[in-house]
Each structure stands twice: as C-alpha cells, then as structure tokens.
Amino acid sequence: MDRKGNLAMNRRFFLRGVGGLTLAAPFLSSLNEAKGQTMAAPKRLVIFYTHNGCLTDKWFPKVENGPLTAADLTGTLAPLAPYASKLLLPRGFRSMNAYAQGQTIDPHDQACGSKLTCAPIGTDSNRYATAESLDHTVAKQINPNKNTPLVLSVGAASTRVKEVISFSGPNIAFPANVNPQTVFNALTLGSGATPTPTTPGPTMPAAVDYHVKRGQSTIDLVRGDLTRLQKLKMSSTDKGYLQNWLDLLRDTEVGVGGMTGGGGTGMTAMPAACTSDTATALGITAAALTAASPTGKITGGTTSFGAPPPPGNNEGDNNLATSFTKGGDMMMNLLALNMICDANRVFVFLYPGYVVYNWDGMAFTHDHHGLSHRTGDNSVGGACGVTGVLDQINQIDQWLAGKFAKLVGLLDGIQEGGGTLLDNTATMWLSELSDGAAHNINNLPILIAGGAGGYLKQGAAVNVESTKDISNGNSTSSCQNGGQIGNTGSTGGNVPINKLYVTLMNAVGCTDNGAKVTKFGVMDGTNATAGISNPGEVTTLTAGG
Amino acid sequence: MNSWRLVFAATVLTGCSASIDAPSGSGAAAGTGKQGSGATGSGATGSGATGSGATGSGATGSGATGSGATGSGATGSGGTSSTAGTGTSATCTPGVPTTSQIPRLTNAEYDRTIRDLLGVTALTAAAGSTPSNLLATDQAGGLTDVGWAAYKTVGEDIAEQVMADATLKTKFITCDPAVGTCLHDTAVSFGRKAFRRPLTTDEVAAFDAVIAAGPDITPTGAPAEVAEALLYNFLVSPSFLQREELQDSSDGAGHFSLSSYEVASRLSYTLWGSTPDDALNQAADSQQLGTPDQILIQAQRMVADPRARDMTQAFHRYYMLMGLNTRWDNTNKDPNLYPAFKPSLVPAMQQETEMFFDDIVFAKKGTFNDLLTSTTAFVSAATAPLYGLDPSKFGAGLTETTLDANHPGFLTRLGFLNAYSGYSGTSPILRGAFITKQVLGIGIGNPPPGAEQTPLPAASDTLDTNRKRFAQLTSGSDCVGCHSVFINPPGFALEAFNTVGSWQTMESDTKAPIDTSANIALDETGTNTVPVSGPAELMAAIAMAPGAKAQYASKWVSFAYEREGDPGDACTVQQLATKMTTGGYTVLNLMTDLTQTLSFRVRAAAQ
User: Fold this and answer.
1) Which chain B positions have a beta carbon within 8 Å of A158's beta carbon?
2) Which of A342, A413, B182, B482 has the highest CB neighbour count under 10 A?
3) Which of A12, A168, A182, A243 should be substituted to probe chain B, the one whose Cβ sees the most B Cβ atoms within 10 Å?
4) What's the complex ipTM?
5) Does A502 score more than 60 pLDDT?
6) Residues B495/B466, Cβ–Cβ less than 8 Å
7) Which of B503, B529, B544 is a domain's end point?
8) Residue B73: how many CB atoms within 10 A of its CB?
9) Res B324 pLDDT > 70
10) What is the spatial distance between Cα B90 and Cα B81, in angstroms, rounded to a whole number?
11) Structure-derived torsion over alpha carbons of residues A155, A158, A164, A169, reported in degrees to the nearest 10
C-alpha cells in the first residue's frame, strides 16, 4: 500500500489477489499447504538484541539445569511464562572480547562489534567488527536467493558500532533499518502515481499488466547500466557490488515471471498466504504504518527529562517514543510478514540503549545506558547516582521482556505446517552485556524460543558449563538505597558463545560442506590470534542431547 | 566506505601507556613540531621533494606534480591503519589511496542531490518526510533488497510529485511531452544533470526505449505519464545513484586521470555534498577542470555558496564528536545543584557551537586561530545566565554577542563545557582527554582496566578542590603517566568553568580557591610544554600548537576524502598544517586547498 492509503498492486500481494484467493484471519492452517503442495517449512533464525545488560539476579530463573516451567518464570521473564514449554535457557555462555581481556578499547563497542562475529573490532574510529557476523553467515546458506538478513531496529538510524551488531564483511557495518514503512515497501513493488484498487476486482489485470511491464523496463535499463559497468576494469569489491545489484534484479524478475507464468520457480514462489489480507490481519495497514513510522527527526529522548513530552512540544522525543512503541511493534509484524512471504529467513531486531525511556508508564530522567551504570551518565563506578535506579532498570528489563514475549507470542500464533512459525524458528534473545555496570559478558542472559523444527531442546534450562551452581550475578547487591556501586557482575559461565552459534547454525540447516558445522568466528578465547580452540556444538542443547 | 561520515566514535589513538617518555616515533603530532617551522618551503626537506607533487597546493606546487616518486605504490597502504593519529610524521610518503569507483550516494547526499536537481525536499506522498527517511540506512556494502526497493519507492514518489507540480516540473522537463522529440530531448538534457555527465549513445537509446514503451508501462499512455516514467527510471539508475569514476586513461604516472565530469562531481560532493550546479557542469563540458588552477577557481566560487555551509557544519560535528547519542546529546546535570541548567537547553548549546563555527568560517572568514580565540558567542535569554549575562538583554533565539576575554573559542562555549563534564561536578579528565586527543592530536591510549571504576575520592580538608581530588584519583602508577602530563593539565585549566559552563573562582561546596594554572604538553614527547594560567592562555597555546593544526587538517582530510587517517594522505595533512602556520590562512583557504592535491585529481588503479 502506498502512503495515500491505497493497497499497492505489487508483485507479491497482488499475485494472490489475481488467483481470487480470499484469506480470512486467523491464518490458514498451513501456509504451504495452501499452495496445493506440501513442502517442508523453512527454518529460520531470529536474534532479538537488547543493550546494557540487565539485573541478572532478577532476570535468571532459579532453575539452572533441568525442566523449565511457567512456575519458574516469575522475575523479569514472567511475560514468557505462557511459552515455557517452548523455551530453552542456555546457562554459562561468554561472548567474545571482554574489555581488557581481548581488546581494551571500549566495553560497549567491543561487546557489540564482537557479539555476532566472535572477532576483534577495528582500531580506527569506526571500531567496526573485523569479520562477518553470524546472521550473514547463516543467511548466505539458508536464505532464498542468498538475500542478506533483515536487520531491524527502532529509534534513529545509526551507523555507530554502539548500535550495530550486524556486519556483512570485515569492517563493513550492516546497520539496521528503522522505518517500518521502508521495510514494508520492500515487500511491494511500490505504487507511485498509479491509482490502484484496494480490493481484487475486474480492473486489476490491466493495472498489473502495465506495472509488470514498467518493472521489466526498469530491470532492462538498470541491467544494461550494470552490465556495462561490469565490463570495466574495477576492483573485485566494486564488481561484487555490481553483482549484488544484478542479483536483486534477477530476483525481481523471477517473481514477475512467476506471476505471469504461474508458479514461478521454486526458489521465489510466494507462499499463498503472502497477501494484503494477511498484512491487514497482522495489523499492517496503511494507517498503522503511517502511525508507526515517524517522518521527522528522532532524538535520544534527552531533551524532555522529567516528564512525558507534551504532544507536539518536542518532535524528536515524541518520535522516539512512537518508534519504540508503535514502531517496534510494527517491526515485529513486518518480521512475521517476511516469514509468511518467505522473503527472509534470518532476522536481527534490536532496541538501542542510549535513549531515555519516557513511555508506557515510564518517565525516566536518565538514559538506559546511564541507568545501567547506576550513575545516571557515562561515568563508571563511584556513588549510586540515581534514586530508585534499580527499580528503573527493572522496569526497562520487564518492558524488554514483554517485547520479547510479544514477538514470541506473535510467531507462535501463526500456524505453519503442523506447528507454528515459532516452532520452525530459533528466536533468541541475546544481551549486549550481563550486568550493565560491571560490563561483563560472561554468564550471559540468553533465552531461545522455538526449536528450529525440533532441533533444539524445549522447556528446559541447560547449564553448559560443567561446574554446578552457576551464579545469577550480583546486580542488585548495591544501590538499593544509595551508597557506592559494588561489584555487580558474576563469575563463571565461560563457555565460548561460538559453540552456541554453531549449535544454532546446525539447527537452522547450515552445513560445513554437507557436514555439521563445528566452528564459527575467528576467536573463542581471550587471544584473538589463537583461532578456535574449542570447536563443536553443544549437544545438551539439542532435542536428543 | 561511504558511511563513515555518520560515525561519531572517538578516534582511537595509540601510545602513551605507562611510559610517557617514549620516543616520538609513533607518528601522530610529534613530528610536526620539528618541521612545522622550517619546512614551510615544502620541498625543502628531503622527503618533501616528492611531497610537493602530491599536494601541490596552490598554484605554485602544481606544475611540479612531479610524476615519478608519487607512483611508488603508495596506494598499497589500503585499509585503515591502526596508527591513527594525525599521521604527520617527519617524513611522509605521498600517495593516492585506492577508492571505490562506484560509491553509492549516502542518504544525506541523496537528499541534497534531489533538492538541487529537482527542488524536492519533502515527500508529499509521505507526510512531508525527507526522501532519505524512506531509504535504507546508510551502509557501505552491496545494495540490499530493502535498499533497492526503497530507491524504487522513493523514486516513484519523487517522480509523481515533480510532475504534479508546475514549478518543480520545469526542473525536469521544459517542453510539451506530447510534441515532437520533447521526451527524447528531455532524456538527453536531464540525463546530463542526473548522471553528472553526458549520456552515452547506448544510454540515450535505452531511455528512448523507455519512452517508446510508454503506452505499455503507464496507466493510459498519456505523454505526461510517460514523462513521469522516464524520470522514475533516471532516479533508479545506477549512474544516478552511484558517484561513478570510470574514465580509463593513465596519467602517465601510475594513476588514472579523472574526466572533467568526474572532477566536477568530486568538487561538488566534497564541498557541497551534492550534485554539480550549472556552472560546474559548464566548466566540465568545456574541459575547464584539468589543472589545479582551474579547479581552484571553482572551489573558491563554491565555498562562497551557502551549500558549503552544510558540509562545514557536518565537518565540525565530526571534529567535535557531536551527534545523536553522544555526550553532546546525553548531557544532564543535577537540578538541585544547578537549577540554571535545563535539559531543554541542550539543543541550543549544540546549536550555539555550530553557529560559532559557521560564523568564524564564513562570516568572519577566520583562521584556525580564530576558532580557538574568538570571543564571539550566540546567546539566548535562557542560556545567558550560564554565561553570567543578563537574560533581559537577550531574546528567545540565539543572537550574536561578544563575551569577555575569559571565553575564547569553541572550547569555552557552553556546548563543550557541559557535554564533557559530569552530572554533579566537572570532569577534568573528560575535558582534558578531549583536548589532548581530539584537538591536539596526541596519541594517548585507553584507560587501563578498572580505571573507570575507581571512585573519585571524597572532598576533605586536604582534598578541598575538584582538581586535588582528580589529581589524587589519577596518582596511581598506572594512571599518572598519561594523566599528569597530558590529560589532566588542560582539564585543570578549564576548572574555571563549572559543570554547566559557568565561570567559577572557588569551589561551590568548600569555597576553596580554584587553581587553573597548568603545564600543557603540546605534543607526544610530553616535554614540549607551555605554562598557562587559565582558559585564555590555554586556548592561545592550543592555537599555536603545530599538533593542533595538524589534527584539524587531518580531520578535514579524513572528512573530505571520506577515508580516515590514510597513510597516503599524510603529506597532504602535513602541507596543510604547514600552511596553517602562515598568517591569514583561513579555514576557507584550507577547504579549497583540499581540492588541490594529486589524489583529488586522479584515482589509483583498481586492485
């Protein structure tokens, strides 16, 4: 649909309209069966990422190893209780490049840059990761057409390493898209000036006809341009970029062919449920997209401390609040729609951390990062600087847990094959840090929902470290009532996170030339040059282990 | 690498661990002190002989572009080196760093290009949003499905908007699309502007094919619809979306010459962040961009155009590490201790600093020295109390005024003083580290593990000033090396300003007098120091420091050439820094000299 409220006649949505298929919410019992054929549901990976750690001793359930039930989820994770039987709580992983152990540059930059890459970060001012990140590695293997992963966020668009965890190659940041409208438009062919009917009807074929032909004429033109460039002497990097673009044209074209030829190729055939009706059922309407997609600048929320911004008083802060609430929720819907349309199988969705929470009942005066330090600002250690800081962090933690639960619930509510989207996906909540004041990345809080088609153990907590009695950390040990900030971190939980990533890669169908994947990243210890010394997946995380 | 401009992370600098008396070999600012003075005659030193060719600044050196030496594979350096810093060592190797031949427009460039090409700044189809708000986030890698779809959607929106507006339409088409060869002529004439070069015969044929297909690719085939489809196709063409440098002819010295069109594009995107204007296109068409002198004429014209102010503002944001989610943005103060501070003033503080840079550079045609010493300020009724001024003398907006001699330059404006300070007290460390690293270009390392967790000692009878408490805090053997020589002294001199930027002579709590005297290390040796009594002398010392000039030049080179600290640019930085030591060398001079280097006129061979 376009910004004028019309449903766009686009390749993917319109395609189904032509077929006369009427889809009613709730969704079809099987997305794939609706195509008149049975095929295995795709496996997918979702990484839900939050910043600044959490109050670990409120976040971690008491159970450390063994069955995980709703009754165990009473703290921060309470919103996840309804899904306990589909949760896997891996305990004891440490991500790479802890400050002063790997590099000594900046704890946040290292945590973000190394999080999904298991590689050091660059020492120039960008501080980007020096290797490709997990989402790209996986996407190259399992995505239709080898598409890049869909990386989404809220708030202002940012290319700083503090807000970037996805890297398409060494030192090449792959920043998140933050505008829901932009993400939605990628599923359409665009509408432009064309007045298009909002419901299937007799006028559609003609509209389709010219739209398809216009698309093809553009493809011809752009391909001619790119092909001419490809013949010139150029660096292999530049040539690779030209090829990327050509591949995108081919994908579009295959889709077009599918429309006119009936069925297209197996690779890009759109599942039957990929319709504008489905979008509507998910809450993705023109009006909702507009409401969720701020058109003006987005600030960090710092200019309206102390009180919710009066409407219209500070556009940037209002836009931030809109983006974090309506925008984030819409991103989840779009993520589900991308799954339904099988436009992507690898997703990263992150909530940035350098913002002042001033919505949903929270009216804080310090940004999340400052709160996580307990000082209220960038300074580390010393006196507890904010009254009620633990309560405020706890509110943010619970809000984020609620958002993760919302995503999990959304995916679990959409049938696919014999299960749900969630069942065929590994949806992982990954945290930048364990505790925000300690900046530690051992003993990371990680929660995985869905078993990736039965690969992962469900309804269980698994301590992957041989030592027992893993710590829940000491986040609330200081600043209950002012005083000095003590050690809020924890010890133990040092199994390299690479092994979790390898497990996930195997779970979603990646291979190492046909064999099981055993290694990911360039380092799994504190020494960046030592390579991977502890390969292999963690069998106790798998359904059979 | 076309997205780094948006990045505001602090520069990482090496060196200065516990041993501060290390030899200056590590590069950075050290060398400039030695050669700054004598080397003025560029070619004087041995190394310079080749250097002159590389930068050939001004008309003088140009002829010498002296071939040979430059070709020496300096391009090999490639990626970003870890040596960072200013890269001005005593000797430099001139080079032409390898650059992409097809960088996509950044989103900011896209917006400005659409503005200058078609007059569109807000999309009516998207509630007045800027075009780039609907584009994918900037990223330097290959185009993605989201990015490609976004170009198409936004292209359609723009094409529709232009054709629906009689005024905007003339920017694209000036004839009746139904008559004669109007559409073909439009493809040729608009294509020249959109592609920043004349279309090739093949390209004209390709657009003619789009026109011929008009009835099939539009709802009714009406000529106006075909015109819109034509415009749309230009807006999604790689030659529009990429700043292509394709000329494949050797300069005879190991590099590839740029075509006059490619030089025009470099000029406009370097100085304006946008597409060439008619005058620049004309100069390119008539081959008037081949020599440094010809380029200089255009550059001097261009910096007088308001469009240059956009880029200069963006540069100073980069230089000052301003931006969203930086210290500038996250400033907050204890309302009980500092009732005059309001978080709502934070944007005005940043704005004041930006207006200051703009005023010195453009209105006052100032020098680097002026940036550090001018007492010009922009004050509103709300910020006046923080400067100790009478608010009744000011209005709601920021208006120009002159402060007293205690307020020289951008480092004594509210913006910096507040941003680089704590919640309830000043931080000489934050202020001092910024000045040391970012302004003086001295490569100090990162704090040792645990340093930041060390609490500041409480005030006491013996520790009755902030200065004494910070000196005590940083007195440990792991800290004192960097802190006592480099970081703390400039911070201590700025203790004359409290955490909200107001002048103070005694501590507000203990009433102890504040000591603002300090010995400022001007380069990495730590031995070249100058005593100052307070902010005014500190700023004068910085203004004179060769390292500060080299750092400012280095930042400009990094920003304008879109590559950070590239060793291939070291000679350029060195020569600009040298020029800055001559009287009357304005920031505008520096900006235009950025277009005078060899690496601006040629590109390295693809690898």
Assistant:
1) 6, 137, 324-325
2) B482
3) A182
4) 0.90
5) yes
6) yes
7) B544
8) 11
9) yes
10) 18
11) 140
Q: What is the C-alpha end-to-end distance of chain B, expressed in Å?
A: 16
Q: How many domains does chain B have?
A: 2
CA B85 to chain A, closest CA, distance in angstroms equals 9
Do residues B213 and A217 lie in contact, with contact meaning Cβ atoms separated by under 8 Å?
A: yes
Percent of chain B with pLDDT over 90: 74
Which is it for the CA torsion B373, B378, B383, B389, positive or negative?
A: positive
> Quick check: is B67 in a domain?
no
Whether B522 is covered by a domain: the verdict is yes
| Domains observed in chain A | 1-30+185-287 (no CATH), 31-179+294-541 (3.40.720)
B residues 307-366 closer than 8 Å to A (CB)? 324-325, 327, 329-332, 343-344, 346-347
Q: Residue B199: which domain range?
A: 107-241
Q: How far is A202 from chain B (nearest CA, A)?
A: 15
pLDDT-derived band at B605 (thresholds 50, 70, 90) equals confident
Instruction: Using CA coordinates, name the residue in chain B closest to A210.
Output: B217
Q: Is the distance from CB of B92 to CB of B597 less than 8 angstroms?
A: no
Is B19 inside any structural domain?
A: no
The answer, for A194 touching chain B at a CB cutoff of 8 Å, is yes
B210 Cβ under 8 Å from any chain A Cβ: yes
Question: Any idea which of A382-396, B82-96, B260-274, B438-452 has the lowest mean pLDDT?
Answer: B82-96
Residues in chain A with CB shorter than 8 Å from the CB of B333 are none
Q: Which three-class secondary structure string do you get for A453-493? A: CCCECCCEEEECCCCCCCCCCCCCCCCCCCCECCCCCCCCC
Tell whether the torsion through CA atoms of B98, B101, B102 and B106 is positive or negative: positive
Instruction: Judge: A193–B163 Cβ closer than 8 Å, yes or no.
Output: yes
Task: Kindly tell me if the per-residue pLDDT of B31 is higher than 60.
Answer: no
Contact A303 B209 (CB under 8 A): no
pLDDT given for residue B90 in this prediction:
58
Residue B461 CB burial class (10 angstroms; 0-12, 13-18, ≥19):
exposed
B27, part of any domain: no
User: Is 70 exceeded by the pLDDT of residue A214?
Assistant: yes
Closest Cα in chain B, distance from residue A174 (Å)? 6
Backbone φ and ψ of B262, nearest 5°? -70, -35
- Report pLDDT digits (tens) over A120-167: 999 888 999 999 999 999 999 999 878 999 999 999 999 999 999 999
Which of A346-350, A366-370, A506-510, B173-177 is least confident? A366-370
Residue B158's pLDDT band, with cuts at 50, 70 and 90, is: very high
With a cut of 90, say whether residue B63 has pLDDT above it.
no
Final residue of a domain: which of B241, B276, B310?
B241
Q: How many CB atoms lie within 10 A of CB A418?
A: 10
Give me the residues of A, 306-335, that contact B with CB < 8 A. Answer: 306
Q: Which chain B residue has its CA at the smallest distance from A246's CA?
A: B143
**A11, pLDDT greater than 60:** no
State phi, psi for A330 to the nearest 5 degrees.
-65, -35
Whether residue A115 is predicted with pLDDT greater than 60 in this model: the reply is yes
Residues 6 or more apart from B207 whose CB is under 8 A from it?
A221, B184, B187, B191, B199, B230, B233, B234
Place of tokens 């269980």: A460
Contact B125 A4 (CB under 8 A): yes
